[in-house]
Specification:
single chain; mainly alpha
Length: about 70
């Protein structure tokens, strides 16, 4: 069960990466206010860091689960 959840976390992190890239590209294409652009880009980067950390945690859980079998 743990490994299945880890696989799902990896899938979600990959999806988040794709969405983040698209959102940042869209932001640069459409946002005219440079201050707002910087703020939103930083927010996207924080969200990306959060999903990366979730994947890191899943990697640890996966390692523990595999070693305990």
């Amino acid at each position: 069960l743990v490994l299945e959840h880890c696989v799902e976390v990896h899938r979600l992190e990959n999806e988040a990466d794709r969405l983040s890239r698209n959102a940042i590209a869209d932001l640069f294409d459409n946002e005219k206010d440079p201050i707002h652009l910087i703020k939103i880009k930083e927010l996207y980067e924080v969200l990306e860091t959060a999903t990366d950390k979730a994947e890191d945690a899943a990697n640890v859980l996966e390692t523990v689960a595999l070693k305990s079998n």
